[in-house]
Amino acid sequence: MATINDVAKRAGVAISTVSHILNGTKHVSDEVKAKVLEAIKELNYEVDPVARNMKAAKSKTIGIIVTNTSRIFFPPVLRSARKEAAQHGYSLMMVDSDDDFEQEKSYINLMRQNRFDGIILDSVADLNDVKYLKEIANLSYRNKRVFVVSIERNLEPFGIDSLVPDNYCGAKMATEHLIKCGCKNVLHITGPINSYMAKERIKGYSDAMKESGFQIKQGDIALGDFSPQSGYEITKRYIESRALLKYEGIFTANDQMAVGAIKALREAGIKIPDDIKVVGFDDTFVASIIDPPLTTVHVSGSQIGREAMKVLMERIKNPDAAPQCRKIETTLIIRRSTDRRAGGEWDLGNW
Q1: pTM to 2 decimals?
Q2: pLDDT in tens, 148-195
Q3: Domain 4-47 has CATH 1.10.260.40
Q4: Domain 58-164+301-328, architecture per CATH
Q5: What's the sign of the alpha-carbon dihedral 269, 275, 279, 283?
């Protein structure tokens, strides 16, 4: 493979001249430039992007660390982030921490050492781990800043720009809807215990129940993991133990667990919404095509990805600006899993 030395030798110029032409760092006469470009073409020379980026101090690469790519909420986030990054001349590398804090730290260190310009992070860190959160707020490698934007949880108090869906209000809306539909007892299937989103959704559910005069009893909150399998297994366990008989509604912390819950209910011959009503969260593409179509809380993954990238671009341009937290609005989408009169159209545009 040809090197910059080979190009300089073929064109009869200094290596520094070739470098100036490739990087546009100094004016070179058209005659010399033509010789160098011809030599590049003849030798099929390719610029080493790593070497170029080390000199330019920018890699033009953004990393995205999500919790788990099996969650169907993330593809719209990644797609819109990639489109926004491309408009600014950046490329993306996405990795999955599998909800593992040690894996998250390993990926951050890898991106830092490879001189990424920024990271969009869906962190699973404990908010009490102030030392770690302060470290990523001031992330750098050999005097080069690596800027971090948090999605799905508010890390602004630690100096990190954040994009956060209104999980609390969304969960409260979902629970209040079930109560308005006549549900006095609502089973809540949560996300993982280390999930900030899951905790906020538990708070929204709990406050809605308490404010409506309903006491939360043992067994009303079941720990899931955001997977369809956990929604299925928890619901099946409640059915088999007959504990489900006291519930008129189920609120799951995401749509995938709602899908699992609906499967278990249908296998048991329990009619939705006549015998029990089901509400999910996220409004992913499965919500409108499952039978019955799922009432859910809409969160725009596309908006999160796009806005997170915009915030990161702003941060790269203005590194000393005050950190910010932007809240993403949530809305309730009513479908037939809670109301037979609701529409049942497929939302193909959300795929």
Answers
A1: 0.79
A2: 999 999 999 999 999 999 999 999 999 999 999 999 999 999 999 888
A3: yes
A4: 3-Layer(aba) Sandwich (3.40)
A5: positive
